[in-house]
Amino acid sequence: MVGYVVYGRGSFNQLEEIIEPHRKKGAPVIFLADHFFNSHPLINRIPVDGKDKIIFADVTYEPKTTYVDQLAQELKEEFGTVSGVVGIGGGSTMDLAKAVSLMMNNPGSSADYQGWDLVKFPGVYKVGIPTLSGTGAEVSRTTVLTGPTKKLGMNSDFTPFDQIILDPELTADAPANQRFYTGMDCYIHCIESLTGTYLNEFSKSYGEKALQLCRDVFVKKDSWDAESDDKLMMASYAGGMSIAYSQVGVAHAVSYGLSYLLGTKHGIGNCIVMNHLEEYYPEGVKEFKYMVEKNKIVIPTGITKGLSDSDFEKMINVSMGMKPLWENALGPDWEKIMTRESLHILFEKL
Ligand SMILES: NC(=O)c1ccc[n+]([C@@H]2O[C@H](COP(=O)([O-])OP(=O)(O)OC[C@H]3O[C@@H](n4cnc5c(N)ncnc54)[C@H](O)[C@@H]3O)[C@@H](O)[C@H]2O)c1
Ligand SMILES: [Fe+2]
Fold this sequence. Notes:
Order of helices and strands: EHEEHEHEEEEEHHHHHHHHHH
Helix content: 40-55%
Mean pLDDT: 97
Bound molecules: nicotinamide-adenine-dinucleotide, fe (ii) ion
Shape: globular
C-alpha cells in the first residue's frame, strides 16, 4: 500500500515540506510532469531546489518500456542517483514515475519485470500527484507498460508510491471527454471488482464506495463543479483500493488487446469494450450507456473493421494472456467460456 496520503484542495502546496526529509545530499528530486503542464502555472508551484529537474513526460502514447528505460538511463548518467521521483499527471505519467523510480535501482530493462513479483529491489522514493481521476494508478501495485512482446504491468510490492498527494484542484482543467473516459475506468474497475469471483469484504467495501461516488458525479449531478472533482478523486482512490485486493475483468482484458495492437488509450478503450459487454455485466453496461448519453459523450465504434486475421490473432493473444482477469470475471473454468472463437467475435463487434 501507499505509505502516506494527503488529500484536500490546495494540498499540492505541501509538496515542499513533504519531500524535504527525503532529500539526500547531492542527489536531486526529479519532477516528472505530464507535458500538458508545460507552460501551465502549476509548473511555477513546483518546489525546485538545487540540482532538481523538471522533465515533461511525453504521454502522446501510453508508457512504453523503452521510454522508461531511456528516462532512467539518462538520470543515471546525469546524476548517478536521485533522491526521488515525483510524478505529476494522469495515469500515464504516474505509471512512468513509478517505473522510472524502480528502474533507478533494478538492473536490465523494465521489460524484464513485466509480470507478477519480478521486481528485485525497492525503487527510489516516489510521490504520485494525479491530475486526472479514475485510473487508481495512484494507489495500485502496478505500472502498466507496453513492452516488446506484451502490455503488462510491473506488479510488485515495491511498485506503490511512498506518498501521494490528492488535490482535486489539479483536475479542474481536464476536458470533459477525457474526464469521462478516465472516470469510466474507475466505474469499470468497480463493476469488474464487485461482480468478480475474487471479491472479498476488503474489495467490496472500497468498490461499493467508489461506485456510489461515480454515480454521484456521472448519474445524479447535472453539471460539473468542484464537488465533482472532489468526489471523483476519492472514487479513483477507493476504486484502486478495491482492485488491489481483487482484479479487473472482461473490459480490461479485451481493451489491453486493443491497446497493444492499435494503441487505443486505456480509458476510451475500456469504454469501447464496455459498450458491448451486456452478456457479462448486464446492469453495469445499462448504467454505463445511460451515463454516456447523459454526459453527451461519443463512444467510437467500428475500430476493428478491416483488420487482418493476424491482427485479430495478436489482440486475442494479448487478451488471453491476462489469465487472472479472466479467472476473476468468469471463474476457474473461464477457458471453457471464453474461447478464442468467442473472443474473436467480441473483437469484431468493436
Ligand atoms: N497503474 C495502474 O494501476 C493503472 C490503472 C489504470 C490505468 N493505468 C494507466 O493509466 C493510463 C491512462 O491514464 P489517464 O486516463 O489518466 O490518462 P493519461 O495519463 O494517458 O492522460 C490523457 C491525456 O490527458 C492529459 N491530461 C492529464 N492531466 C490533465 C489535466 N489536468 N487537464 C487536461 N489534460 C490533462 C494528458 O496530457 C493526456 O493527453 C494508461 O497508460 C493506463 O495503462 C494504470
Ligand atoms: Fe483500468
